[in-house]
Automatic annotation (TrEMBL):
The lineage of its organism: Bacteria, Bacillati, Actinomycetota, Actinomycetes, Micrococcales. Gene3D superfamilies: 3.30.70.360, Zn peptidases (3.40.630.10). Belongs to the peptidase M20 family. It comes from Flexivirga oryzae. Its EC number is 3.5.1.87. This is N-carbamoyl-L-amino-acid hydrolase.
Length: 420
């Protein structure tokens, strides 16, 4: 079987070019970071740049009504379901150059490599990017792919708002990506996402790529605590309704739960911690925190959420504070298709690339698309312990090329699979 040869320099150049869109100087690290929140002007500019690369590769592109973009390279039998590659190009506010971007630009590089080699495939091959994968702006992660998979209704997605009250729908219209086409139909033959691992597993195993077995469960909740403002100097300790105290206790309790081992490999993060008016001499009357829980076992996730709710209710009652919970996102453990995993493993072996199989600690669009077609992911090794969601995020040109080689050659195999 001929190997599809990708062009590492062309791939790297596109990654470094896209990194400039939404670039900012990060005080903490002194590095250039990427801030490309979904549907902002920076995201719109990056979208247009990717669409231009797609058009340059001779692809037919379309935009659906939640702003997902897909571009197609025609196969010889267009009646057959396509093979889809993709990821996201929106980032967190302290983002790096590779999270999501690698899977989109790697897919475009695969298309160029197929063109360079003059290869005809039986099936259409598609590459795309999904809207608001990070969930940082509109509060729900994997938004575009969840609409594609039917887990989130389009109308619900459209009305989600950002901190300024702007809706997804109005922002899609503002940047001109409120596409006419319906969300993806019919389902693809298969979906493969190439993505940086964002953790230490591949580096610890000293291998260039990973074959992803699935994604752990994710729970996002917003907790708002209402206490009572009062004078910092005159109010006796025993008669305070201190929302800030309850909020801070929740952070400490979450760490205790993780360290206890009672919830397996639970990971908890309070990424947003806001104490109302923030006045030195006033007891906080209000506190808001977001709670991100991850667990590779659904039952343990359920138990963690339940015990946390009990802890908060008890403590809030004790301090005369009321607690208000809002569900932002919740996804179960998602296993990936074993045949697609095995194809990726066989492809890595054929290319002489060492690999390990691993569960993903991070959420990905693939976990949504897995609901509509056989899906798996190939991980790319990260440097510095695989740190991510920071400008320190870094994978070498070779690692990016290795992952894209696995992606491209696996997609080529799938694209020539006849109808069952
Ligand atoms: O939150 C996640 O795991 C992903 O980066 N959206
Ligand atoms: Mn990502
Ligand atoms: Mn991310
Ligand atoms: Mn005073």
């Amino acid at each position: 079987m001929t190997e599809l040869t990708i062009n590492p320099d062309r791939l790297w150049d596109s990654l470094m070019e896209l990194k400039q869109i939404g670039a900012y100087h990060d005080e903490g690290t002194g590095l250039q970071g990427v801030r490309r929140l979904a549907l902002t002007d920076a995201d719109a500019e990056a979208r247009r740049r990717c669409v231009q690369w797609m058009l340059d590769a001779g692809l037919e592109f379309r935009v659906d009504r939640i702003g997902n973009v897909t571009a197609t390279r025609a196969g010889t039998d267009r009646s057959l379901p396509c093979v889809l590659m993709g990821s996201h190009i929106d980032t967190v506010a302290t983002g790096g150059a590779f999270d999501g971007t690698l899977g989109v630009l790697g897919g475009i590089e695969v298309m160029r490599a197929l063109n360079d080699a003059g290869i005809e495939t039986l099936r259409d091959v598609e590459v795309g990017f999904f809207t608001e994968e990070e969930g940082v702006r509109f509060g729900t992660d994997m938004l575009g792919s969840a609409v594609t998979a039917g887990r989130i209704p389009l109308q619900h997605a459209w009305q989600l708002t950002d901190i300024d009250g702007l809706t997804v729908k109005s922002e899609l219209e503002r940047i001109g990506f409120d596409g006419p086409t319906p969300e993806r139909r019919p389902a693809p033959h298969a979906y493969i996402e190439c993505h940086i691992e964002q953790g230490p597993i591949l580096a610890d195993a000293d291998v260039p790529v990973g074959i992803v077995e699935g994604v752990q469960s994710i729970s996002w909740q917003r907790l708002t605590l209402h206490g009572e403002a009062a004078h910092a100097g005159t109010t006796p300790i025993g008669s305070r309704h201190d929302a800030g105290l309850v909020a801070a206790s929740v952070v400490v309790e979450l760490r205790r739960m993780c360290d206890s081992g009672d919830y397996g490999q639970l990971r908890a993060t309070v990424g947003t911690f806001d104490i109302g008016a923030g006045q030195t001499n006033v007891i906080p009357h209000r506190a808001m925190l977001t709670i991100d829980l991850r667990n590779p076992v659904d039952d343990l996730m359920t138990r963690a959420e339940k015990d946390l709710a009990t802890y908060v209710d008890t403590l809030a009652h004790q301090h005369g504070v009321s607690a208000e919970w809002e569900r932002m996102a919740k996804t179960a453990v998602i296993p990936f298709d074993s045949r697609v995993q095995d194809l990726l493993a066989d492809t890595a072996e054929r290319l002489g690339l060492g690999y390990v199989r691993a569960m993903s600690g991070a959420g990905h669009d693939a976990q949504e698309i897995a609901a509509i077609c056989p899906t798996a992911m190939v991980f790319v090794r990260g440097e510095y312990g695989g740190i991510s969601h920071t400008p320190r995020e870094y994978s070498t040109p070779q690692a990016c090329a290795d992952g894209t080689r696995v992606l491209g050659n696996a997609v080529l195999t799938l694209a020539n699979q006849p109808a069952a």
